[in-house]
Specification:
Layout lengths: L3 H20 L4 E2 L17 E8 L5 E7 L5 E5 L3 H15 L3 E2 L6 E15 L3 E17 L6 E17 L4 H20 L2 H8 L1
Parallel strand pairs: 1-4, 2-5, 2-6, 3-6
Antiparallel strand pairs: 3-4, 6-7, 7-8
Helix pairs in contact: 2-3
């Protein structure tokens, strides 16, 4: 027969298990870029090879800083470059660009910054999110000798201030939406369109 003391002990153990589960923190975020919006530009009769590079000085995406504590760093659970190249290719295909790995025309999306910086205090947190993608493109000269190059930066920055601690799921959602906006801006860029279709 169980005594009140035994029942109390079991209840406390159960409560501690639940609380420890709630307190577990994700070590990664999942990059799943939102739907790429078609742009009113046509790349018909043009082809290009599209790839992505990651040249960030750090590999984490989220850093949560608290006073007198080491920053908590959260990285991507999947490949940023694969996601960026896949979504960019999807968007350019919607604009009738033929994706060809052997094309002499090259579009490279270079990830230079992708960081969510969170400053955590006792009762609130401040968030600053920055994404910078540089487009580097080359096309052969019309005379068949050498290449011409094109380079342009695309970025987005946002800030917020919210109570209590940050919700990682919200940070993940906002990051994916911001990255999609940058890719949309690249696909809709008239200068890049003119350079590739010349």
């Amino acid at each position: 027969m169980m005594t009140i003391k035994h029942i109390t002990s079991i209840a406390l153990i159960s409560l501690m298990t639940i609380l420890s589960g709630c307190a577990s923190k994700p070590n990664n975020i999942i990059v799943a870029i939102d739907y790429v919006t078609p742009a009113p530009l046509s790349y018909a009769n043009s082809s290009a090879n599209i790839k992505a590079q990651d040249l960030r000085p750090q590999q984490h995406i989220v850093q949560i800083r608290k006073k007198d504590q080491a920053a908590r760093l959260i990285s991507s659970a999947n490949s940023l470059t694969k996601q960026i190249a896949a979504k960019a290719s999807q968007g350019f295909k919607q604009q009738a660009l033929t994706i060809d790995q052997h094309s002499q025309k090259q579009i490279t999306l270079v990830l230079q910054k992708a960081l969510i910086d969170v400053e955590q205090s006792l009762v609130k947190h401040k968030t600053k999110s920055e994404i910078t993608l540089q487009v580097q493109a080359i096309v052969p000269n019309l005379d068949g000798h050498g290449y011409k190059s094109f380079s342009k930066n695309f970025n987005t920055t946002s800030t917020s201030e919210m109570p209590l601690t940050p919700d990682i799921a919200v940070l993940e959602r906002d990051f994916n939406q911001s990255l999609a906006r940058v890719i949309n801006n690249i696909i809709a860029d008239e200068e890049l369109h003119q350079f590739i279709t010349q």
